[in-house]
Structure formats: structure tokens, C-alpha cells
Amino acid sequence: MKHKxxxxxxxxxxxxxxxxxxxEMDEYEVVGSAADGAQAIKMYKTLNPDVVLxxxxxxxxxxxxxxxxxxxxxxxxxxxxxxxxxxVGSKVEEALRLGAQNVISKPFDKEQxxxxxxxxFESDSRQ
Length: 127
Fold this sequence. Notes:
This protein is α/β, with parallel strands linked by helices. Helices cover 48% and strands 23% of the residues. A 5-stranded parallel sheet has the order 2-1-3-4-5, with helices on both faces. α3 (63-73) packs parallel to α4 (89-98). The mean pLDDT is 91.
């Protein structure tokens, strides 16, 4: 059975790149793609994904606000934040403190994504 993934990024190109990487991995299925945090919350409620890959910096509602809301809706939600390398160090720390499972840096590579997702679901299966 495949793990359902929701991608949240205001860059359509980056969302597509993530989708392509996940398509190469047999164990993941992208069930939706949102362009901002507000849309992500609505989609989370209806799609019930196993993991959310979410950009930190987005218009309207950023990833941190969305992370807080998703974790209020579902304390066991698995959210991995996506961050550009420059200038968001404190936001990365805050995301982890709020409950994000991990952070993937842009530009990302397939191995990094695979490794982060594998750790999340391995630890999940041990519980």
C-alpha cells in the first residue's frame, strides 16, 4: 500500500519537481498539491494524507501557520517542511519546535527526500 503525500508549495515548478521525484518511488502516491497554507489545510481535511511536504515561505498563509493548524486538527500529522537555504534558519528551528518531522532544503535531491520519508515511516512502523 502506498503512502499518500500532499505537496504544498507556491512554486508550481518546485511542486512538479517534487511530484516527479515521488513518482519514481513505488511506495508514495501524490494525492494533491496546494499553492498556499490555507489551501493545504482544506486539502488535508479531505485527502487525509500520510505525510505533507510543505514549503515554509508562501503567500497568504505560510507554512508555519499551516503547520500549527494541521497539528491542531491532527496531532499525529506528519509534516516535512521545505526550505530554501538562505535566510530562514530561525523559521526552520521554529518548524521543528512546532512539530515538523524534518526539513528538506531546496534545491533538494531524490536521495534526501527518500531518506527523510523512509525515516518517518520506519519510526512509525516500530510503534
